[in-house]
């Protein structure tokens, strides 16, 4: 069995059955405990699980899109308005999964742009706007969160390049690390980062520090952070030391 297939099966087992021991995973997959330990180490390095004594666990804090979409709407709209103003007509824009990306999509009507996304709510918002060339990435449907994920999405992204990526997050650690609660989204977000020329993190004040056990990227992978309130000094320092511009509701935070 190929390593990639084993990794998929390990994550599926942990998501469906909770914490699992190395011996149990070894029996399920028909490989040695040593192989499982190496797989768990690799998956932990990728931020897709947490190793615990004798095994591993995946923690997912998933909420339906409709619930998340009703939270902090004014803050997300302020961030989205600034983000939309960064984009020039004729450019290509990659929009992440999530509700802030959806609020940004609402700000793009009437523009001459190419928009690439795996966010089905973004697709529905822009589908009838004839000025926008809309590219919907393929993948496996996550019904509750209205998005497409998986290796097909990642393969699509490897074929594309965008002038801008607008990235969402569950939380930003004091060291500037971008986190997520849903591990299945992490490889897609990482593929988006590779596909974007400029990477802009959209994060309202509640995302500092926010939450999330899976690391998406470090501050060195970001170009700009757009938020709605001043960022705490420790996190701001970490971001700025990495060369990240921090913007608060239309102004640069100094």
Protein model, in words:
With 254 residues, the protein is of the alpha/beta class. It has ten helices and 16 strands. The protein has helices spanning 3-17, 22-29, 33-45, 65-69, 73-86, 99-106, 120-126, 151-158, 186-195, 233-241; strands at 20-21, 50-52, 55-57, 92-95, 113-117, 132-136, 140-142, 147-149, 162-167, 171-172, 178-180, 196-202, 214-217, 224-227, 245-248, 251-252. The strands form four sheets. An eight-stranded mixed β-sheet has the order 6-5-4-9-12-14-15-16, sandwiched between helices. A hairpin with a 2-residue loop joins strand 15 and strand 16. Helix 6 packs parallel to helix 7 and helix 8 (151-158) packs parallel to helix 9 (186-195). The longest helix has 15 residues, at 3-17. The radius of gyration is 19 Å and the shape is globular. The N and C termini lie far apart (52 Å).
Produce a short descriptive summary.
This protein has 10 helices and 16 strands. The radius of gyration is 19 Å and the shape is globular. It is of the alpha/beta class and 254 residues long.
Measured between the Cα atoms of the first and last residue, the distance is 52 Å
- Biggest sheet strand line-up: 6-5-4-9-12-14-15-16
Task: Please state the CA-atom Rg, rounded to the nearest Å.
Answer: 19 Å
Structural class: alpha/beta
Order of helices and strands: HEHHEEHHEHEHEEEHEEEHEEEHEE
Largest sheet: 8 strands, mixed
